[in-house]
Amino acid sequence: MKLNQWTEADLELLKGTFLFSGVSPERVKRAAEDARCRIGVFQKGEVIYDRTHFRKSLGVLLRGSVEVHKGGEDGRGLMLSILETGSLFGAAALFNETERYVTVLSARELTRIVFFPQELVSDLMQEDFRIVTNYMCFLSGRIRFLNDRIEGLAAGNAAGKLAFFLAGGTEQVRGTAEIRLNRSVTALAESLDLGRASLYRAFRELEEAGLIRQEGRTIYISDVEALRNL
């Protein structure tokens, strides 16, 4: 199987995504087979979008996972989230005239992505209003997510800021999770607007509360929901 070609598993995954919820399998298949649709393959660490290099397309992860950062071109800014298989991204590039993208996206592993260009997305919306509704719900969810992130970063204490940052590193909403920090303590402290000593205390507080366990740069979250609600 070539990584840049469709498979039956890809089509099944696409049917189950948020964008195509309630849409007929035939319409999903036609969208996937449209000549404007493209599949991209990215190696671990490869930048998919940055502030000046991006596509006017809506992306859907077919395989792998992607880190989303807010910050420098090298992706070492604040990590906002991790996108898993089936996730959508790229809405900020559609239906506007911006020449800069809002975040940096990079592959965490070998990753396959299908890109639906703006023109195709517009045509799909005109053909089926359910896609319009799904897209609006997706945007609404992203607004709520970003508001939560802003609230967390504006939290009055270091433990609250760190908790929101760590919870934002996974797409899970409850249960356990594991994330790996991709920056130094100094860089993380700066991105959270904290001193190094305050950051160390915040880690200790969360560990003593039983919410996380730290082993080097790997953080094991014991209760994602509790961490989000701290």
Automatic annotation (TrEMBL):
One of its GO terms (cellular component) is cytosol. GO terms for molecular function: DNA binding; DNA-binding transcription factor activity. PROSITE patterns: CNMP_BINDING_3 (PS50042). CDD domains: CAP_ED, HTH_ARSR. Coiled coil: none annotated. InterPro entries: ArsR-like_HTH, cNMP-bd_dom, cNMP-bd_dom_sf, Env_Response_Regulators, HTH_CRP, RmlC-like_jellyroll, WH_DNA-bd_sf. SUPFAM superfamilies: cAMP-binding domain-like, Winged helix' DNA-binding domain. Residues 19-106 form the Cyclic nucleotide-binding domain. Keywords: DNA-binding, Transcription, Transcription regulation. Pfam families: cNMP_binding, HTH_Crp_2. This is Crp-like helix-turn-helix domain-containing protein. It comes from Papillibacter cinnamivorans DSM 12816.
